[in-house]
């Protein structure tokens, strides 16, 4: 019996043999007991291997799920950023169209002025020729015509206005250049996900310029930007957080100030090894029953269709998980809200 059992185990190790039924306690019985112990050990090993296989399968499933979650998170972050840029696109276009409008108008006016310059210059050029070929009466006649023409076209005004047109046009071009540069800085994407030198005060300036059309109709922005060192960070991601905070502040003051502009105060300073940025508004405030949930993914207090709830959740992930910083909020209903962002002075290079 024992011999045939070992042979069957040798031929097919995956099929466990049955234990022996022992009736004797002699040497054969003791051998049978050892055999049964051997079978128990094989069963334990088989169970352990089965558990290991199942554990490995679960680990592979978890690893695959983690990769998918990481990819999904990256997609959500990018989608939220694109949504923010899309939200601002119309405003940026409006901001650019304003200076473009008066540049275009100025160029039309300049074109008309140039035609008038030509008219008056033709007369003076004719005078140059006649001074050598005719008598004084002819020269006086031409000079008189030039004086009449100058009065007719208001030449003195044209001379002064031309200076102002060039000045205004140059200012418009500089405004467009600043908006485009700010948009480029704001929307930059670091494909390698490496941190580089970043100026938080500059990030605040560029983000406010990009979001100006969203802000200017509802709030005044007050700056208290301190002298702070540069840090190592993903500038595009930090700008995304700033944009989210500023747009939230605009929505808060818009709901709380119907007939007047609200106030958004942006403050930066250094404290205990952190660069601190505070964005404070005098809006409607956050109810105490939801303030602990605002950083949860997909949580939003906005009406259906007006908010994904991704913004603050992604902001938390960017500041806390990706930059080893801190983000907190203080709020009082009817008084306002303050978001406090802290980034380590010595970021990862």
Highlighted features:
349 residues, alpha+beta, Heat Shock Protein 90, five-stranded mixed β-sheet, two-stranded antiparallel ribbon, 8 helices, elongated
Major sheet attributes: 5 strands, mixed
Gyration radius (Cα, Å) is: 39 Å
Helix content: 55-70%
Strand content: 5-15%
CATH class of one domain: Alpha Beta
Q: Give me the CATH architecture of one domain, please.
A: 2-Layer Sandwich
What is the structural class? alpha+beta
CATH H-level homologous superfamily name of one domain: Histidine kinase-like ATPase, C-terminal domain
Distance from N terminus to C terminus (CA atoms, Å) equals: 72 Å
Number of strands: 7
Secondary-structure element sequence?
A: HHHHEHHEEHEEHEE
Low-confidence stretches: 304-309
Shape: elongated
Number of helices, where a helix is a run of at least 4 consecutive DSSP H or I residues: 8
Strand order of the largest sheet: 2-4-5-7-6
**Mean pLDDT score:** 76
CATH topology of one domain: Heat Shock Protein 90
């Amino acid at each position: 019996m024992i011999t045939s059992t070992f042979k069957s185990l040798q031929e097919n190790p995956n099929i466990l043999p049955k234990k022996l039924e022992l009736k004797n306690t002699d040497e054969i019985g003791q051998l049978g007991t050892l055999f049964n112990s051997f079978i128990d050990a094989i069963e334990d090993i088989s169970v352990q291997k089965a558990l290991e296989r199942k554990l490995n399968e679960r680990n592979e499933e978890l690893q695959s799920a983690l990769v998918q979650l990481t990819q999904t998170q990256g997609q959500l972050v990018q989608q939220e950023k694109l949504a923010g840029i899309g939200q601002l696109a119309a405003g940026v276009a409006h901001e650019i169209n304003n200076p473009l409008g008066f540049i275009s108008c100025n160029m039309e006016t300049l074109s008309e002025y140039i035609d008038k310059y030509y008219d008056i210059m033709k007369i003076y050029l004719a005078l140059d020729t006649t001074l050598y070929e005719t008598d004084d009466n002819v020269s006086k006649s031409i000079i008189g015509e030039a004086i009449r023409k100058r009065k007719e076209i208001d030449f003195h005004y044209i001379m002064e206005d031309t200076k102002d047109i060039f000045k205004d046009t140059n200012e418009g071009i500089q405004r467009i250049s600043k908006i485009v540069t700010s948009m480029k800085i704001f929307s930059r994407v670091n494909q390698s996900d490496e941190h580089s030198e970043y100026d938080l005060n500059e990030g605040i300036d560029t983000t406010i310029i990009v979001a100006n059309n969203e802000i200017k109709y509802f709030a005044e922005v007050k700056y208290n930007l301190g002298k702070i060192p540069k840090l190592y960070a993903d500038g595009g991601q930090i700008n995304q957080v700033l944009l989210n905070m500023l747009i939230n502040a605009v929505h808060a003051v818009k709901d709380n100030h119907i007939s007047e502009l609200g106030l958004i105060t942006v403050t930066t300073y250094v404290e205990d090894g952190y660069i601190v940025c505070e964005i404070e508004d005098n809006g409607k405030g956050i109810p105490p029953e939801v303030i602990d949930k605002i950083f949860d993914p997909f949580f939003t207090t906005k009406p259906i269709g007006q908010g994904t709830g991704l913004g603050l959740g992604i902001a938390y992930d960017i500041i806390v998980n990706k930059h080893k910083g801190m983000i907190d909020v203080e709020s009082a209903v009817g008084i306002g809200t303050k978001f406090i962002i802290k980034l380590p002075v010595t970021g990862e290079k």
